[in-house]
Amino acid sequence: MPKRPKRVLITSDWHCGHLVGLTPPDWQEPGLRPHSAKFAAIERECWDFFSREVKALQPIDVHLCLGDVIDGSGTRSGGTELITTDRNQQVEIAAEVMDLIHAPVNVVCKGTPYHTGVVEELEDVLALQMKSRDRPWCKTFKIGNHEWVEVNGVTFDLKHKVGGSQIPHGRYTASARDVLWNVLWHESGYQPRADILLRGHVHYAVGGYRYVGARRKQFGTMPALQAMGTRYGGKECSGLVDYGFYYFDIDENGGITWGERMLFVKSQKAKALVV
What we know:
By secondary structure, the protein is of the alpha/beta class. 25% of the residues lie in helices and 23% in strands. It contains 6 helices and 11 strands. The strands form 2 sheets. A 6-stranded mixed β-sheet has the order 4-3-2-1-10-11, with helices on one face. The relative contact order is 0.18.
């Protein structure tokens, strides 16, 4: 009898602690500040989507996270965009997200230092929480800058940072470039040969595949689990933000079926001022 395929969940850029980051109900905006109703609506809509879809995908065998699990101290905006400036509390929020995912194997790439720590790295604190005695279901929790994970013979190449682009047709280039770099690194003997290469950081989902010889390589950038609503994004960025996550089912022979769960966040839709 064939074995059940292993289910691999891929997430990225939670930014827990930010007003539009991934926020479980106990941490959601209570309505005590200006514009709180808007942020509260975004937090509820996004969390309801994420929790519903993750529960529907259970059991999840492997969870791969591509970084920026917390938002950090928010020094560039004086912490005004945050639910809490306490990064330890932000780690607690991230741990609640991990509890919902409930995967026995978790691999987390370290994120942007501005968010997760320049000197200390707060992913290490999250690792300590997940390895605690009250989470016996978490059998493996690994963190690193650049990780490779093999599932039923299929190798994932995972990293947080990748070059971004403000032009739509340029968003494909950086992850396609990293595929070729992996070929060269593998040829040199330093890296595993990747079948699926994924990057975070840019908050948009663009990708494709190419063949190297007869070997198919799938690659792309990840959607985020932080909605629109940051000062930086509003002032500095032009492109669309994609909200959601991917999953892969990999059978015992290495056959791959993949899916995505994407959300159009209605509560952040802009409206024109009618005069």
